[in-house]
Specification:
With 290 residues, this protein is α/β, with parallel strands linked by helices. It has eleven helices and 13 strands. It is 34% helix and 25% strand.
Length: 290
C-alpha cells in the first residue's frame, strides 16, 4: 500500500495539487483521471520523488516506490539517437540482476526481427510507446506508474497493451495509471481517483461511482397528462423535446413499477444509463464551480 496524505504542490505560489489524500492498494489497478491541467502529472512526479511536496506525506510501508521495485512510464517517450531497439533491451537488462527474458520482452513489443534492428527513433509513435512500456518491464517491477500509457497507440495496439496490463494485474502487480480513454478506466481500474483543479473530487470503485452517483434517463414517446406525471416519486422531469417526455431517476425499477401502476404503456420507452464519463464530467463541473 502507498498512502498519500494532504499532498500539496504550488507553482508561482498557486496550488496545482491541493491537499490531496488517497491510498494506492497493493495488487490493485488505480486510475488517476481528470481534465488537462488538473495536477495529475505533478502528483505523479511527487509520488515517484521527482518533485518534493510543499506539504503532506507519502508513506510506502511495502517499499513499492524503491528503485528496485518501481517502474515508471513517463508521458513522453524519448530515446537516444542512433540506438537500435535490441540494443536498448540489452542496455536496460544489464541494469538489473534478474531482467525479463528477451523472448518474453519481444512478445510484449510484438516487434519483428526487422523492427528489433531499427533505430528506436525511427519507429512510429505507437511503436515507441509500446517499446517504452516494454523497457519499463525489463526489471520486472512490482509497482508500475504509467502516465498516459496508450497515447499515440492505435486501437489494435491499445488492446494488446491492456491485455498485458491484465496479466500483470493477475500477477499481483500494483498499477497506477492516467488515461483520457474512459473505457480503459471502466474495464481495468479497481479504483478511480479524480482530480479537478488540483483537488481530489472522487475516490471510489467504478462500480460504486455508477451505482451511487449515476442516474438514468427514461424517455416516453407520448407524454402523459401532467396530473399523472405528478404522482411519480423521486424523478426529475425535463422539458418536453420533439414531443417526447424525459425523466431522470436514480431507481429505474421503481419508476417503471410506478409507470405501470399509472397505466402508462411502456412498449416504446427508451432508457439511457449515464456512463462513467457522464458522471465524472458532471462531478468536474460541480468541482469547478466551488
Amino acid at each position: 500500500m502507498i498512502r498519500i496524505a494532504h499532498l500539496t504542490q504550488t507553482y508561482h505560489q498557486k496550488p496545482v495539487v491541493n491537499d490531496v489524500s488517497f491510498q494506492i492498494h497493493a495488487g490493485q489497478c488505480t486510475a488517476l483521471i481528470g481534465p488537462n491541467g488538473s495536477g495529475k502529472t505533478t502528483l505523479i512526479d511527487m509520488i515517484i520523488g521527482d518533485r518534493h511536496p510543499v506539504q503532506g506525506t507519502i508513506e510506502d510501508p511495502d517499499h513499492l516506490l524503491t528503485s528496485e521495485r518501481l517502474g515508471v512510464l513517463f508521458q513522453q517517450s524519448r530515446f537516444p539517437e542512433r540506438m537500435k531497439v535490441i540494443e536498448l533491451y540489452h542496455l536496460f537488462a544489464h541494469c538489473y540482476p534478474s531482467p525479463l527474458p528477451f523472448e518474453e520482452w519481444v512478445a510484449i513489443t510484438q516487434f519483428t526481427e526487422k523492427q528489433l534492428q531499427q533505430f528506436a527513433t525511427q519507429l512510429s509513435g505507437g511503436q515507441q510507446r509500446i517499446l517504452d512500456f516494454a523497457l519499463t518491464l525489463v526489471g520486472q517491477p512490482q509497482c508500475l506508474i504509467l502516465d498516459e500509457p496508450t497515447s499515440a497507440m492505435d486501437v489494435e495496439m491499445r488492446q494488446h497493451f491492456w491485455s498485458m496490463i491484465s496479466k500483470l494485474k493477475a500477477d499481483g502487480r500494483t498499477i497506477l495509471y492516467t488515461s483520457h480513454y474512459i473505457e480503459e478506466v471502466e474495464q481495468m481500474a479497481d479504483c478511480v481517483i479524480v482530480l479537478n483543479q488540483g483537488r481530489l473530487v472522487m475516490d471510489d470503485t467504478p462500480q460504486n461511482i455508477k451505482r451511487e452517483q449515476g442516474h438514468s434517463i427514461i424517455t416516453l414517446p407520448t407524454p402523459p397528462a401532467e396530473a399523472v406525471i405528478s404522482q411519480l416519486t423521486d424523478v426529475k422531469i425535463m422539458p418536453i423535446h420533439d414531443g417526447q417526455l424525459q425523466m431522470e431517476t436514480a431507481d429505474v425499477q421503481q419508476t417503471l413499477i410506478e409507470l405501470l401502476a399509472l397505466n402508462i404503456p411502456l412498449q416504446h420507452i427508451e432508457i439511457h444509463h449515464h456512463s462513467l464519463l457522464d458522471i465524472i464530467f458532471n462531478q468536474h463541473k460541480g468541482g469547478a464551480s466551488q
